[in-house]
Amino acid sequence: MSIRRRVALSVVGFGSLALVAMVSAPLVGSTSISLRRAFDWSQPFDGNVDAQIFFVARLPRTLAGALVGAALATAGVIFQGLLRNPLATPFTLGVSSGAALGAMLAITFDWAISFAGISAVPAAAFVGAAVAVAIVYALASARHRGLSTDVLLLAGVTLNAFFSALILCVQYFADFADSYRTLRWLMGDLDVSSYEPILSAVPLVVVAFAAFAWLAKPLNLLSMGSDSAETRGLSVVRAQRGAFLSASLATGAAVSVGGPVGFIGIIVPHLVRLLVGSDHRVVLPASALFGAAFLVGCDVLARTLIAPVEIPVGVITALIGGPFFLWLLVRKH
Amino acid sequence: MVTSKKTLIVASFALFAILPSRLMPEIAAQSKPSRIISVIPAVTEMLFAIGAGPQVVGVGSFDEYPPEARKLPRVGALLDPDLERILSLRPDLVIVYESQTDFRRQLERASVPTFVYKHAGLPDVTQTITALGSRIGRASEAASVVRTIEAKLEDIRTRVQGRPRPNALVVFGRDALALRGIYASGGVGFLNDMLEAAGGSNVFTDVAKQSVQATTELILARRPDVIIELRPKPIGAEDLKKEIGVWQALSGVPAVRTGRIVILSDQRTVVPGPRVAEGTELIARALHPEVFAK
């Protein structure tokens, strides 16, 4: 089968899955609403609670889930390809702990800033992610002509531990209600309640995805080892830099919208590879679509299973992802 | 005769010395404590309210009231009591929250008497004050503080009696300038009890938890008539306006349409101590402004 056909086939398959998830997710929730009323344009929107639940609560949430799921799943694919390590996740290189530290500071010190619809917590999370990426990048390129993936990995893991210590430190000085909220932030939450957070993350994710499209072929070459990739005419350093920065951008944008939702970046890529093989030209679009469908589905469970009490979406992805990942480990060996 | 008296004194000291050490705290417990430590804001307030302020030698990191309490050494809080500092202050009574089991065990090992309490709902506040009063020998002062609280609560209840009880959402945590990370009082706990006493009806009365994550959908679906936000930290007039404006995104909520969003930045509404009735009145004023107009 030609590569075009394989791409088309997987996009149609996973795309319809994502479509089904995204169309059906806004139909369910912790309350039952009348769809006829929700779409009754003759009523003023201000007084139409059904329409508000649909358009202010559920639709942004579904879109946020799709965006975060797609970004984290593809970032996972890129990091696994870049580090040539199947255990890599979007959070391996410190992006999420940087973001978490930013969010913690914003919550604990009650930073009341907002511009263009972005409030302090997501903004601080994004800045924190950028700081972490800059540190890891500077370390990994400091003593090498290119980018050392070993240093990248070690610096990332160490930075994760260091930032986690800072997070605990900040949390220790926070008062009770704040430390509860910071802890909850770490479990992921897609209840964005407006479109602004999504609209501001979309351009970042689009830039990252454009880079991913360019990276598909280089990552295929890299999977054979950087020396043989170089002999085939690939500028390894450029590909590595592009992969690291674009995947970090996607992760930072996703985490600032939905918090560090775990396991998406590892189970989605692996599941997709099981189904479509390991060619990045197929794996990347398929992971984006399946990641979107998976997170939207998990969020439906999060808000309906024991409604009106909400289960953090990161708890759902971890409950599904943990056992699945262990199964994957046992199956491979 | 003289010798026998001396012998008696020595013997009584000896008897005291050979008593099993685990009985010691109980003996100490009978005496009136003169060096008390409290690490929870609500209890520190209670101690000062019943006139035991001069006996308090150490307070918690978050204790802000009364102003005299701020001058005392700070010895940690609910989650991080500083045992070393506490012992160095030579307390003869430490007030311990029920969940501080390790802390309590450490104190018992050091033969420091403890007073254990817990507050789940509003009635626990007056019960704790009464128990604390009799424990430290200030039962009559405690009784008078309890009477004041109960009279005030009763006055509020009478004032709001027979009036429509607005459905209220009581928020105690939210991200700054966004409708995210919203936590509200569920159907149990002292915030819920204060709301009910203030003549309101909790929109989350069916959720048997102290805190509920109030998602956008839940807030829209529960349609609160009034939104009351409780903040322990003070807020400026400009920020107050902005924070109230954030709610405009949910114009389907009656409270937003009618502009009944109240932000109370007052310790009295979040500390379940002796000022709890005053906090309840602040909530009642937000719910029934017409009753408290004068």
Detailed description of the structure:
The complex is a heterodimer of chains A (333) and B (294). Chain A is an all-alpha fold and 333 residues long. Chain A has a single domain, classed as ABC transporter involved in vitamin B12 uptake, BtuC. In chain A, 74% of the residues lie in helices and 1% in strands. A two-stranded antiparallel ribbon of chain A has the order 1-2. In chain A, strand 1 and strand 2 (118-119) form a beta hairpin. In chain A, helix 4 packs parallel to helix 6. Chain A starts with a helix and ends with a helix. In chain A, 50% of the residues are buried. The mean pLDDT of chain A is 90. Chain B is an alpha/beta fold. Chain B is built from 13 helices and ten strands. In chain B, strands 5, 6, 7, 8, 9 and 10 form a six-stranded mixed sheet that branches. Chain B has a four-stranded parallel sheet with strand order 2-1-3-4, sandwiched between helices. In chain B, helix 6 links the parallel strand 3 and strand 4 (114-117). The N and C termini of chain B lie far apart (76 Å). Mean pLDDT of chain B is 88; it is low at 10-29.
Q: Helix and strand layout, with pairings?
A:
The complex is a heterodimer of chains A (333) and B (294).
Chain A: H1 3-24, H2 35-38, H3 49-83, H4 95-108, E1 114-115, E2 118-119, H5 120-142, H6 149-173, H7 176-185, H8 196-222, H9 226-231, H10 236-258, H11 264-276, H12 280-304, H13 313-332
Antiparallel strand pairs in A: 1-2
Helix pairs in contact in A: 1-12, 3-8, 3-10, 3-11, 3-12, 4-5, 4-6, 4-7, 4-10, 5-6, 5-10, 8-10, 11-12, 11-13, 12-13
Chain B: H1 2-18, H2 24-30, E1 36-38, H3 41-49, E2 56-58, H4 67-70, H5 83-88, E3 93-97, H6 101-109, E4 114-117, H7 122-135, H8 139-160, E5 167-173, E6 183-185, H9 190-197, E7 201-202, E8 211-213, H10 216-222, E9 226-230, H11 237-245, H12 254-257, E10 261-264, H13 276-287
Parallel strand pairs in B: 1-2, 1-3, 3-4, 5-7, 5-9, 9-10
Antiparallel strand pairs in B: 5-6, 6-8
Helix pairs in contact in B: 7-8, 8-13
